[in-house]
Amino acid sequence: MRMNPTLNLLFVGLLSGTLSCSWALAQQEKTSPRTSTLQEASSNLTVTISVQDDRQGNSGTPLLLLTVHNLGKDDVLFPEERIHVTGKTGEPKTTLRQRQVTHTLQQNEPEIRDSGFDPVIEAGQSFTRKIGLKDLYDLSRPGKYSVFAEVLDAQASRDNAGIWVRSRTITFEVSPTAP
Questions:
Q1: Shared-domain flag, residues 107 and 146
Q2: Could you tell me if 20 and 85 lie in one domain?
Q3: What's the rounded Cα separation, in Å, for the pair 174 and 14?
Q4: What is the CA radius of gyration of the chain?
Q5: Same domain, 66 and 98
Q6: Strand-pair category, 37-39 with 163-166
Q7: What is the residue range of 15's domain?
Q8: Which is nearest to 150 in space by CA: 89, 101, 87, 91?
Q9: CA distances from 81 to 2, 11, 130 (A)
Q10: pLDDT higher than 80, residue 47
Q11: Quick one: which of 130, 79, 119, 121 has its CA closest to 101?
């Protein structure tokens, strides 16, 4: 049975339009931040942070220890996180990695591939991720800084957007480097 050429063209156009829209949506999801609310607490997760010097690896570079405790009954993947640092003059200059995480890439900046490592946090357990703050911000100026973290509790809302659960804010100091 032969199909009408007009119907063939219509079918091909409809199929290619659908594929183009699907591809565009997938690209948008990669780079668009989720529209989520911010909360101090969640019934599923708690977030704590501390800062220590990484004396073994990077000669005194501040390391953020981000601990997520799973309060739920089910295992969860380590959630998406956002780190915020401010200094005496506001937010320090951000790195490419931080701009990618916060969806603020500048024009013509390449995307960095995600490592794909999101550990499972079993129900009732915690996992601590070590994050080098110099990988996110230019901390070359000595002084006092403050930092807080937010993690996305994707299971905490009805509309699947999730809520951002915020840690307390703590301070740390970057000392001048010896000559």
A1: yes
A2: no
A3: 58
A4: 22
A5: yes
A6: parallel
A7: 1-32
A8: 101
A9: 56, 43, 12
A10: yes
A11: 79
